[in-house]
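Our preliminary data section would be incomplete without showing what the modeling component actually yields. Below, a chain of 131 amino acids is followed by its predicted structure, encoded as tokens that our downstream tools consume directly.
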Amino acid sequence: MDRRSFLSSMVAVPFVGAVTRHEMDEARDAKEYLLNRFSVAGLQCYRGPALIGLLKAGDLLTMTAEPLNNHDEFAVRLEWGGDKLGYVPRSDNRHISRLIRQGARLECRAVKICPEAGPWNALRVEVFLYV
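Predicted structure:
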């Protein structure tokens, strides 16, 4: 790489991942609404037991709708750091799945971590909607 190529690439670096002023204003002005609170389903079937001791209250979990899931067309997978922890319980997933598929701004946060409570109550989370 010659000097000119190097300098050209360095000029572009500050703009990688940049957001517009409009996007920053929207994020700052967004209102937060609690949609749901539940324990993660299937925690014992995936990476939950290995990771539960590393999670902290306030950690963000990634939610992914799985409309092609063989067991539940409204399934919503929960991950932390790229590792699958489990799912939103079937009793609570329908509206969350629909909102994700429609592009709504949702956030899932760990609120209570209690490994000794057993797999059904070991990890409680809250899901928020931002508008």
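DSSP finds four helices and six strands in the chain. Residues 34 and 128 are 4 Å apart (CA to CA). Preliminary results of this kind motivate Aim 1 of the renewal.
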